[in-house]
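To whoever is on call:

I kicked off a structure prediction for a single chain this morning and the downstream step that reads the tokens threw a length-mismatch warning. I double-checked the sequence; it's 571 residues and nothing unusual in it as far as I can see. Pasting both halves so you can look.
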Amino acid sequence: MTSQETGASIFDDPITLEVAWGRLETVAAEMQSVLRRTALSTLISAANDLGCEIMDARGWSVAHAATSNPTFNLTLPRVAGELMRHFPPETLAEGDVLFTNDPWIGAGHLPDVSVVTPFFKHGRLVGFAGSIAHVSDIGGLLNQTEARSVYEEGVYFPPMKLYDAGRLNEAVFATLRGSVRAPEMVIGDISAIVTANQVACRHAVELLDEYALDDLQGLSDAVQSRAENAMRQTIGALPDGDYAYEHTFQGPDGTFTIGVEIRIRGSELAVDYVRVPPQHPHGGINSTLSFTTARTTYALNAVLTPHIPSNQGLFRPITVTAPEGTILNPTYPASVNDRTKTGWQTVPIVQGALAAVATDNTAPSGFQSGMRFIGEDRNGVPLSTIFMHGGGMGAGTDTDGVDAICYPTSSTTIPVEIFESTIGAHVVANELRAGSAGAGRTRGGHGMRTVVAAPRSGEGRFTVAASINQHGDHPLGIAGGRSGGTTEVLIGTEAVPVGKAGERLGAYALSGDAEPVTLHTAGGGGFGPPRERRPELVLRDVRDGLLTVADAREVYGVEIDLATLRATRSA
């Protein structure tokens, strides 16, 4: 019996559907595991700055690795669609590998490279394995705050074939060898992506064989229709209306304000960024529409359907628009390398707009920041990596925010041992930042305090650049909760003024007697009145050194007796 005869009945059975979909998710998870284990850079292998996805022959997402970067998962179908526009499906062959790092197609800046590999059954295209990963260097200015266009941010690869019927396009690797600071590391990472995709292609075809399926379309349609129905039911349960919100945040040259209108009509939802500053002339803070859309839909998934795995169907009821020529939809060749400074702001914007109607909302979170190290190890080998630093997640209605998490991504902080052994720099401190959590009935998560000093004598020479988020911004508390602490940067004991972190750390030589660099990441906002917090939870934070006795009394109204470790509500 053929799949055409049995396909509908197979996927009408929810148990069979769950098992088959779970198997495909396992294929994507293995793809991610292979990529992390074979990549050369710590940014991919340790920090998990990547996304892996299985798509059907239309380029529509079916399954992704559970800990993939959500931006990359949401971007890959757009990438596949654009690549198929340049290379129509009927022209693809076994051994083809498609490739681009176009920020207007992919994940918003040049270091995020996209690799999409078609797979075939009996000579017929049946799906794609796609990965996006953040390579450690792509060339361009060392101090990206000075970049005035994407031309100054690195090497640009339009949609092309990295492999054509199994034959390597040598020009790509030759260009990288002549253009990036750590070419063998970057080429090794791209080769790891190709390998991971190949593994996924093989296992996806084996899955089709096991279920006697000719292609992925039956499974794809089944999971996407269920996800779409779930999102439509969730939207349909919300009151029709126009939900407006304005959000102000600190930019490189002062404050920026973005206004949004979220329109709910029946089972459909439209996000319209209606008041957006014009695209910025320098510094890379512009967020391409592909990145803006991915971050917005991610926020909607988190607020509306947090327990439903995402795929193409989940977002069909949603549209996202932003005026062309603005910081949320810049025109080529705008500088875009530091696009998270703007694009990540869509998360608190969506949270704020839907706060009155969404029951599963959380307070705004502290975003991750990072310090980029570029230089040579003790043997003169070029190295480039980013040391990620998580912020505190916003509090939920009944749960405290997670401490030191690389939100709003699925990246992780690189373990100190790996960072020091790779780079040679000396990490003096890497700990939770006391007092940074926004107070509330449930409190926000704590940010981090990280101090990095120059490498010990003979261990290497490095220049530090920085990508700092929420410098001067406090993630807001909601429903009576208090705001989290803002991001702070210090060189030695001197605090870097708000808006000047990129300038001061654009190319800071961390060697010899150079002062250490300290980064304090933002804490998450609190939820609900602080004086409704349970005293034993206040005592726990005091005992752990994260809250002072004085703040316990003044903020939470809780008296702490350190001698007996007792907490009582103040009169």
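Update from on-call: the warning came from a stale cache, not from the record. Cleared it. Sanity check on the structure: Residues 1-8 have pLDDT under 50 and may be disordered.
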